[in-house]
């Protein structure tokens, strides 16, 4: 390795120090989903990022989705996935599969991977200790819930005991149905608020917020809450980005210092965002 590369590497590590000091002891909520869960290389990078943050004293809580795995399991049992306004229509049979896949396979695979790489992860489901409580969002979506209450005690206990809590987004029903499917972005935002988190990171399959959706060079690195309505009006925030931005807005309004829509397709985007001067997504503050 040349002197230049050694120096460059030292520079990177030195640059990380003030950020490590800034975030040490603080809580970060990472919403993990999309491509970063499917691609082996990206998955590996996310896992090692989370462990590194944990080892330098940052309290990391992970909230995960599992859309592709649910679709795959439904296909195996011969059931067609059906979406209404971008949300999976969840009938009783689908809800059973959602619960099995999210609280079971996806959650435990993630916990096992984190532990296998030297982390100390513990798997939680939104129904554990009444973590997420919900009522039906709208009959047209079936058993999709809207979170009415978050009791973060079990996550706080895990963090305080040196664990990385990994949370699946199935909620306890409070209005007759036993459980509900919850949008993972929303659940992560609500958990970040309940934990008084410093930062919410939403890993997505896009570069961030783009002024021109067809041009990745038009990334908007930071947005103030007051800019959001005009960005929606001008068509900069459209489609699936609207609910993501709304989650971030709600989190920041409710006390989270900032929320970042992060490109999960970039290896180690979490570390670049948290521990360097770069930043690789769109921050709402």
From TrEMBL:
It catalyses: N-acetyl-L-glutamate + ATP = N-acetyl-L-glutamyl 5-phosphate + ADP. Its EC number is 2.7.2.8. CDD domains: AAK_NAGK-C (cd04250). The record marks 31, 244 as: Transition state stabilizer. It holds the Pfam family AA_kinase. Signal peptide: none annotated. Its main location: cytoplasm. The keyword Disulfide bond does not apply. GO terms for biological process: L-arginine biosynthetic process via ornithine. Substrate binds at residues 66-67, 88, 181. Keywords: Amino-acid biosynthesis, Arginine biosynthesis, ATP-binding, Cytoplasm, Kinase, Nucleotide-binding, Transferase. Pathway: Amino-acid biosynthesis; L-arginine biosynthesis; N(2)-acetyl-L-ornithine from L-glutamate: step 2/4. Residues 26-263 form the Aspartate/glutamate/uridylate kinase domain. Catalyzes the ATP-dependent phosphorylation of N-acetyl-L-glutamate. PANTHER family: N-ACETYLGLUTAMATE SYNTHASE, N-ACETYLGLUTAMATE SYNTHASE, MITOCHONDRIAL. This is Acetylglutamate kinase. The gene is argB.
């Amino acid at each position: 390795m040349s002197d230049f590369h050694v120096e460059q590497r030292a520079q990177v590590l030195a640059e990380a120090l003030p950020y490590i000091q800034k975030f040490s002891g603080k809580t970060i909520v990472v919403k993990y989903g999309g491509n970063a869960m499917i691609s082996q290389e990206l998955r590996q990078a996310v896992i090692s990022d989370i462990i590194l943050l944990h080892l330098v004293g940052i309290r990391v809580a992970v909230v995960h989705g599992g859309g592709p795995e649910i679709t795959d399991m439904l296909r195996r049992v011969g059931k067609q996935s059906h979406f209404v306004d971008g949300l999976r229509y969840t009938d009783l049979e689908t809800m059973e599969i959602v619960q099995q896949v999210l609280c079971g396979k996806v959650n435990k695979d993630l916990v096992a991977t984190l532990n296998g790489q030297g982390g100390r992860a513990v798997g939680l489901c939104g129904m554990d200790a009444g973590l997420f409580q919900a009522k039906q969002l709208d009959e047209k979506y079936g058993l999709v819930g809207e979170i009415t209450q978050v009791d973060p005690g079990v996550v706080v206990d895990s963090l305080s005991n040196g664990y990385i809590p990994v949370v699946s987004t199935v909620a306890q029903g409070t209005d007759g149905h036993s459980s509900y499917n919850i949008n993972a972005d929303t659940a992560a935002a609500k958990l970040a608020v309940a934990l008084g988190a410093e930062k919410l990171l939403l890993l997505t399959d896009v570069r961030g917020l783009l002024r021109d959706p067809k041009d990745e060079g038009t990334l908007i690195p930071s947005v103030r809450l007051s800019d959001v309505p005009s960005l929606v009006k001008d068509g900069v925030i459209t489609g699936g980005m609207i609910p993501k931005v709304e989650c971030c807005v709600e989190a920041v309004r409710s006390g989270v210092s900032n929320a970042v829509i992060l490109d999960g397709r970039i290896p180690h985007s979490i570390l670049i965002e948290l521990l360097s001067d770069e930043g690789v997504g769109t921050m709402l503050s």
